[in-house]
Every structure is written in C-alpha cells, then in structure tokens.
Fold this sequence. Notes:
By secondary structure, the chain is α+β, with helices and mostly antiparallel strands. It has 16 helices and twelve strands. The chain has two domains: 2-231, Cytochrome Bc1 Complex, Chain A, domain 1; 251-429, CATH 3.30.830.10. It is 44% helix and 20% strand. It has a seven-stranded mixed beta sheet with strand order 1-2-3-7-4-6-5, with helices on both faces. β5 and β6 form a beta hairpin. It is globular, with a radius of gyration of 23 Å. The relative contact order is 0.15.
Amino acid sequence: MVRAFKAYGEHITLETIHPLGTSLVAQARLKNGLKVILHPLPHKRVFAWHTWVAAGSRHEFLGKTGLAHLFEHLMYRGTSKYPEGEYDRLLDRRGAQANAATWLDWTHYHASLPSSKDNIELIASLEGDRLQHLRTDNDVLQTERDVVLNERQYRVDDDPDGALGERLWSLALPNHPYGSPTIGWQEDIASISASDCNAFRSRWYTPDRVTICVVGGFDLEHTLDTLVEEYTSFSGESSEPSADFGSFTAGDDVLDVAVSAPRLLVAYPSPPATADGLLALEVALDILFGGDSGRIVKELVFRSAVASLVEGFLAPLQLPGLFEISVSGREDKDPQLLLDTLNQGISDFLQDGPTDTEIMKSLRHLEVDLYRGQMTVDGLAYRLGHDAVVFGEPLRFQSLPNKVQAITKYDVLEAAKRAFNHIPAVVKAEAQR
C-alpha cells in the first residue's frame, strides 16, 4: 500500500496506515486539503463511495436557516457536464444505490456500486464534478425551494412529532447553532437566494472540509489515480465558525397540535462527542430507555401503564447539545402525570444506581450495535467517515470494545448524575378531545 501512494506523492500525502481485520485502512490528504480514507477489501463484489462535508445546519448564516439542507437538494440538479437527471440515470444503469442526508454538523452523500474500474471512474467524476460545478441558477433554486417548503409542511407543520421536536430544540438552545431546525424555518427557506447558496458553497464546500471514504472491492492504484484526476483542481479554503454559542436553557411549553394521546418531550444538556464520560452516559440511557427492558420503559409502559411508548435519544455532536426523552401517553393521561412519573424513575435510578445485570446487558447492546454497523461496506464506510468528521478519529471504533468493557457502575452513575443535574426543557401536547 505504501508503494502505491509513493507513485502519487506529488498530489497525495499518506498520513497513516492501520490494520482493520485482514486488510488495511489508509488515511491520506490531497494537496488541496481534501481528506481520503481508503479501505480496500478485494473479496467484496461491491464498494461504497461516501462523501462527507463538514457543513451542516449549524454552519448557516443568520436568518438563512435551511441552507445546508437546501444545498443537499441542489446537488442533484446537475451541472453543465452532467445535466439534470444524469446523476440518477447513470447510477441506476449500473445497479447503484445512492442517497444523502443533512444534519447539524455535516452533510453526507453516499453511493454503493458493483466493483469495477469503470464504476470507480463514474462515481468519482459525478461527485467531483458536482462538488465543483454545481448549478445554483434562480430557476433551479426556485424549484428545490418549493420542494423543501413542501417537505417542511409534511414533516413539521402537519406532523405533531416533528413540531414537538422542533420546539424542544429551539426552547432548550435558543441562542445556539443547534437550536434551529435542520430543515430550516419557513420564512428563512422562502428568502434564500442564489447568492446565499453561492456564499454557503464558497465558505463551506471547500476541499479542506471534505472527506471521501471508499470501502470494498476496488483497485487501490486505479482509485488513487482517479482521485488525483477528479479532485486536484478542487480549490478553496474555509474559515471556522464562531466558537461563541449559547448554553442550555430550561423551560416548559405546551404545544397546540392535533394528537390523539398526550405527548411529552424532555431534553437535558449533553456533552460534545469528544468529552470524557460520553460512553458511560450512553450506557446509563440504555439502562433507562433501551427497549422493553429499560428501567423507565418498564415503569411507565408496563407497571404504572401511563405510557404506550418511551424512548431516549443521544447522538454524538461536535458541540454541547441535547439528549432527549420522548413519551407517548395513554389516551386518558395528563402530560404532567407522564412527567412526574418520568422524574420519579430518574430519581430512583440516581439513588439506587445500576445493577451488575443492567450494566452487563447494556455493554453487550453497545458492542452489538458497534459490530452491526461494520457488517456491510456501506455501514463500514459510514462509520469511518462519520467518526472522522465528528470525532476526528476515523478508526475510533477499533478501541471502543476495550473502552466499553472498562466502564464501571460508578462511571455510569456519575455520568447520569451529571446529565440529570439540570432542570430540563419540556414540551407537552395534550390529547385533542
């Protein structure tokens, strides 16, 4: 592998090589700053090509929320080389699967194709071309803006769960880049111009913020040659977003949305992804909310029977953010009763602590989820790329099994105490009579 990179030393700098299973993972950087993660698996008949851009909704301009998500849509509207529709048509003919997602810290474009040199050349050409030569004309923008406004109507305005979630984050993080919805506020989406899109691309869609991760059956030397050909002309340099952001704010709100049963959303502040104790907090939340055996789930759904569904959600974020708890109540229950019962369950856990059995079961859950995410080339490419962008460590997951096994009952209880040592943000919805 080192020999292959030496042939491209003028264009690519090999930074590290690590073993992963029976193969190797190479991390490299083009001269323009674009990062590359390559994990060839010769026995695979498919490969995954994932492009991560460190630009999400937290990188948007004031009053222009929804730009990152709208830009994801625009990426499929074609260039002069590949007019609109060509991206999907060419990939469909090759039996490929492709999609994209935008979130708070990143935008992620991914495709999986049958292994061949032609397909490596095709996906590199398609992705490299639209990164550099995307159309942002007013007519294209207008069409996609209408699509996004309709999507917002469907996912938020006409969806009680979407409306509640949006209100929770804006209530808990009012002056924080995570406080605005990724899809954007309606009035902001409607006001986005082509010049706004171009400014967003110029600032954030730059090679130093792009990570390309290729995993599966591909020829290493040919792929390096293709990367050099398609991406060395990619230019630009971004600036980091402001480090000033608001902190968590407690609050309570009742939302007037049409629900047949009461709903409750509760948020507590979460540490950034790289903070110590994040794994222990994941274990604590799994003990409390992980499936039917979760301690809070058993209490609210089965013992007291005040709720039909209880879920906890924590995602690793680059900045301090939120973890949220969602409760769907029985039809005749009051949202305040749901909150009181939830709070009592949390209080009991903080007093009693986790049991050995709960710790062991949750650690196994973490390990299973970890290995499940590596079972396909797409899953492995996602893990490598996501951890490179969010944690700055594409191979972070290699050390996780040992870190997980080292977690103690004390670690879990202390993480829970830190997490729940705040007055939460709460959004309720009462059942419509």
